[in-house]
Amino acid sequence: MRTNQNGWFGAEMRLISVILFVVEFVRGAVLVSLLPIYGAKTLGLAPDVIGAAISAHYITDTLLKIAIGYLLDRFSIRIVVQAGLIISLIGVYLLQFAELPWMFIGAAALYGIGMSPIWIACLTKVTEQQRATQMGTLYTIWMAGIGGGPIVCNILLDFSVSFTYKLLVSMSVAACLLTLFMSKERANTPNRMPLRKQLTILKEQLSQMRLLLPGMILQTMGASMLVPILPGFAEKELGFSGTQYSILLTAGGLCAAAGLIPMGKLSDKFGGKKWFLAVGFGVFALGLYTLASGLTFWYCLLIAVALGLSYSAILPAWNALLAAYVPPRQEGLGWGLLSTVEGIGVMVGPAAGGLLAAWNGEASVFWISAILFGMIGIFYLWFPFHAFAINEQATNK
Q1: For residue 156, which of 286, 30, 273, 47 has the smallest C-alpha distance?
Q2: How many whole angstroms separate alpha carbon 354 and alpha carbon 349?
Q3: Where do the domains of the chain lie, and which CATH numbers do they carry?
Q4: Residue 201 CB: number of other CB atoms within 10 A?
Q5: Distance between CA atoms of 365 and 55, rounded to whole angstroms?
Q6: CA-based angle 94:96:102, to the nearest 5?
Q7: Is 155 exposed, middle or buried (0-12, 13-18, 19+ CB in 10 A)?
Q8: What is the pTM of this model?
Q9: Do the beta carbons of residue 349 and residue 59 sit within 8 Å?
Q10: How far is 164 from 156, CA to CA, in rounded Å?
Q11: Which of 311, 323, 326, 322 is nearest to 277 (CA)?
Q12: Tens-place pLDDT, residues 31-81
């Protein structure tokens, strides 16, 4: 046990965690703040164009995940992560020249190419003995980055768009430079199998987890639908200032980040994945539906806290559930495939949210998203978790 802990919190993992934080900070700032606010206010783009750009980012990110997993099983983590971050840096740099819709969408798509490696590299470091707890730690770092990015970016955009953009480019450069200190070793996947055999095993795993596939897609779709319309909804429909919007993001993000590790430990201890998922998704659905009612700031603050806590309950239990379907000695390819399936919803969500907002108003996006999460919560009340337990025992062997 001590060895696992030292390996997890060792110098290499701390370095990778710092890179993950910087990368997700920039990603959150770009996707949640820079693209929607800069695209709408500076470039005058419609919500459907902004949604298409965010979808393009996630399309390239998602489609490459399985390839990245394959590469991580065969090449050093440093080379794969470094190449990806350099490509993403080019995408961020080109945003300043994106005066036309197709350029705007293209730069966002290029930016998405390099996002996959660092996250999957972290997943390959997770140990079986403390999977939910370690996943909680990773998601805490992820949440701190992707939540802190929009908060800082929203405040800075009120003062200077140019400075904000240069800061994000500089942080992207810093992430690339940090990869120079990464180990040249490959991912810890000994006894590698031929690709054809790996794909055969993964096909069998997907067949076993077919009941999970609809939920995997719908939950990421429901969340990503909100990305292109959140800043506009807070300003136009709720009448919030940039500072108030940042406070809501901060409250929700802090509660989510603070709850991830405790929720992960509780999930490991009690094995109560059914109730963590069902209640978490149910609270999330109720919170989103209530937000669309146009409440005052203080009510929205309470809802943001509830959303953050429900999110922290969902993530560790969900990833522990998925972990049962990652074949041993194929962690890179396994997590890459599962991330690809989850990413299908993220690919369509922003574009769907942008089109829905342009057609029927931004509040309708919240209603549809709430319905999707409510359906998923009900689904997990019915889901046969005994089948998961059997599959988990078989996978661990």
Answers
A1: 30
A2: 9
A3: 10-181+203-396 (1.20.1250.20)
A4: 16
A5: 16
A6: 65
A7: middle
A8: 0.70
A9: no
A10: 6
A11: 311
A12: 888 888 777 777 777 888 888 898 888 888 877 776 776 777 778 888 888
**Helices 242-270 and 297-323 sit at what angle, rounded to 10 degrees?**
40
Tell me the C-alpha to C-alpha distance, in Å, between residue 110 and each of 81, 140, 290, 363. Answer: 15, 27, 36, 30
Nearest to 318 by CA among 220, 182, 180: 220
CA 347 – CA 221 distance, rounded (Å) = 8
Phi (first) and psi of residue 292, to 5 degrees: -70, -5
CA distance 43 to 79: 36
Which helix (H) or strand (E) covers residue 128, if one does?
Answer: none
pLDDT in tens, 90-122: 988 888 787 788 888 999 998 888 777 887 777
Q: Is the separation of the CB atoms in 310 and 284 below 8 Å?
A: yes
- Estimate to the nearest angstrom the gap between the alpha carbon of 49 and the chain centroid: 21
The amino acid occupying position 386 is H
Count the neighbouring beta carbons within 10 Å of the beta carbon of residue 237.
17
